[in-house]
Design a protein that fits this description.
- By secondary structure, this protein is mainly α.
- 86% of the residues lie in helices and 0% in strands.
- The chain contains 3 helices and no strands.
- The termini are far apart.
Length: 73
């Protein structure tokens, strides 16, 4: 069992941001797809725990990852 679910969500949030940047730099669709998945996983936890301060940042990261993916098609 994971002891710090919010900590895991924050890590996923950060991973989303890094993968989006990496995907943009390398023009790799797979990084954008992984970024989207990481953001979505983080958002589920943030919404469930009502962590509104972190939700807004993850929603922004998700939108950036989705825009990257759309631009790489």
């Amino acid at each position: 069992m994971i002891n710090s679910v919010p900590g895991v969500a924050f890590t996923q949030h950060s991973l989303c941001d890094v993968l989006t940047d990496l995907g943009a730099a390398r023009k790799e669709k797979a990084h954008a797809e992984e970024a989207i998945a990481a953001c979505q996983d983080a958002l589920v936890i943030f919404w469930d725990r009502k962590m509104d301060d972190l939700t807004a940042g993850s929603e922004k990261n998700l939108a950036e990852a989705q825009a990257l993916l759309a631009g790489l098609h």
